């Protein structure tokens, strides 16, 4: 109603507000799919990246590296339940579940569950350095043909960086990669490099 293009809530605010029955996981996912910027936990830098990605590329997906799988040379990507279902793989249905959630102190939130379409993908992270200086960390890689994980009640998939997960994560940490990430289907490294050149942001590919 107020013309905002994105938002980043802390989960506790929904109970404190008093008007919500659940944490709006489905609402966040639907807004992502409609082109709004989103990140959880007050992460304004990642909100900025989802919104910029919607404009620059389209269909930005909010996520985080939930766990590393060295056997698959990949990272399992997932968050609390939010995700852009427009990147879902086309050979499986998108599920909507009554999901038990142990945080927030509210009712079970309806949550979408899907795995991302296998193929090339680009993951980005905007890292604040000092003052007005920022660094954009970019990893090009592949979304793997991820098996169904019935015990994961939220969007998930394996992402394998082209440089390998160990080398990528070492460089990610070295350059200040952030807790949350934004992911896009396809190779979009050139567009991000061009944007960094225009805005004077340091570009680092890991």
Automatic annotation (TrEMBL):
GO annotations of cellular component type: cytosol
Molecular function terms from GO: L-arabinose isomerase activity; metal ion binding
Organism field: candidate division KSB3 bacterium
Name of this chain's protein: Arabinose isomerase
InterPro entries, sorted: Ara_Isoase_C, AraA_central, Fuc/Ara_isomerase_C, Fucose_isomerase_N/cen_sf, Lara_isomerase
Domain L-arabinose isomerase central as annotated: residue spans: 2-51
Source species, domain of life: Bacteria
GO BP field: L-arabinose catabolic process to D-xylulose 5-phosphate
Record's signal peptide: none
Domain L-arabinose isomerase C-terminal: 60-201
A Pfam family matched in the record: AraA_central
Keywords from the UniProt entry: Arabinose catabolism, Carbohydrate metabolism, Isomerase, Manganese, Metal-binding
Keyword Metal-binding applies: yes
PANTHER family: L-ARABINOSE ISOMERASE
């Amino acid at each position: 109603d107020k013309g905002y293009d994105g938002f980043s809530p802390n989960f506790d605010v929904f109970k404190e507000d008093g008007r919500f029955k659940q944490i709006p996981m489905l609402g966040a996912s639907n807004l992502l799919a409609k082109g709004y910027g989103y990140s959880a936990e007050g992460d304004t830098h990642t909100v900025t990246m989802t919104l910029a990605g919607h404009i620059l590329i389209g269909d930005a997906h909010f996520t985080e590296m939930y766990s590393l799988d060295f056997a698959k040379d990949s990272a399992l990507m997932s968050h609390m339940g939010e995700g852009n279902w427009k990147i879902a793989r086309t050979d499986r249905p998108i599920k909507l579940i009554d999901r038990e959630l142990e945080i927030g102190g509210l009712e079970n939130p309806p949550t979408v569950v899907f795995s991302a379409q296998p193929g090339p993908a680009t993951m980005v992270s905007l890292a604040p350095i000092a003052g007005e200086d920022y660094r954009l960390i970019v990893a090009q890689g592949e979304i793997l043909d991820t098996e169904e994980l019935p015990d994961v009640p939220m969007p998930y998939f394996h992402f394998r960086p082209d440089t390998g997960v160990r080398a990528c994560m070492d460089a990610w940490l070295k350059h200040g990669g952030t807790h949350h990430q934004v992911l896009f289907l396809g190779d979009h490294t050139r567009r991000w490099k061009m944007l960094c050149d225009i805005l004077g942001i340091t570009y680092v590919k890991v």
